[in-house]
Amino acid sequence: MASLSDQNLFYYCLVSHFLLGPLTIIGLQFLQAPYGKHYRAGWGPTLSAPLAWFLMESPTIWLTLLILPFGQHRFNPKALTLISVYLFHYIHRTCIYPLRLRRTSVQRSKSANRVPILLALLAFCYNLLNAYLQTRWVSHYANYSELGNWLFWGRFLVGLRIFYWGMRMNVQSDMELLALKGNDGGYKIPKGGWFERVSCPNYFGEILEWFGWTFMTWSWAGFAFLLYTCANLVPRAHANHQWYLEKFGAYYPKSRKAVIPFVY
């Protein structure tokens, strides 16, 4: 069983996670994270984008694997199945995506291929918090015995379907964006697939992933993660959408929404 101090740590981390969502929404009304399209000088030293992505996402793998063996459900097939889904996303995001990004970096402007160290550090700290909460819930605090197998696995399969659909959309959209980079490093209007409906299907896909994860885990930890994902990505998608409209003017399809098809 968990000690009282561990329970308190989990509780305060969970509350902090819920508070981060509103704070992030408020902050992004005044300031956009300075990377990619929105990169700007004045944020101090920078890292190459592939290295920054690798470093700031890495806690989702190594911290997860460090925490998992200390949970009371460390050998439970349900817990191991859930955490495998979580790791599946982050192995791609931490290891595979930076390699793909690196291949296109020679075609991008130097500024667009840089991430401020401060921003990477903030993301690193967030991933420490989130990896702890998701892993500790799945491996220790979840009560798998209160659910019948049919309910757990039924809910898992529905959530997994949503997660898979979202991850597929996220990965395909990211790859299409990378493929659009010309030899001059310039931006082009993305076309085809979900880009015909929204400017940022990669963000919509990631929101769907963590909606599916929340359904699979049926936990406050998963729900806090979903809310923060929306708080972070929806304003970013809006900023990207406005950037496209300003850059391409009348050439950019006016029917596209920012991130949620037919809605926003």
Describe this structure in words.
With 264 residues, the chain is an all-alpha fold. The N and C termini lie far apart (45 Å). The chain has a two-stranded antiparallel sheet with strand order 1-2. It has helices at residues 4-28, 49-57, 59-67, 77-105, 117-141, 149-179, 201-217, 220-248, and strands spanning 46-48, 114-116. The protein has eight helices and two strands.
Highlighted features:
2 strands, single chain, mainly alpha, two-stranded antiparallel ribbon, 264 residues
Task: Explain the layout of strands and helices.
Layout: H1 4-28, E1 46-48, H2 49-57, H3 59-67, H4 77-105, E2 114-116, H5 117-141, H6 149-179, H7 201-217, H8 220-248
Helix pairs in contact: 1-5, 1-8, 2-4, 2-5, 3-5, 4-5, 4-6, 6-7, 7-8
Low-pLDDT segments? none
Silhouette: globular
Average predicted confidence as pLDDT: 91
Share of residues in helices: 55-70%
As a whole number of angstroms, the C-alpha radius of gyration is 19 Å
Number of helices: 8
Main beta sheet strand tally, sense and closure: 2 strands, antiparallel
Kindly estimate the percentage of residues that lie in beta strands according to DSSP.
under 5%
Neighbour order of strands in the largest sheet: 1-2
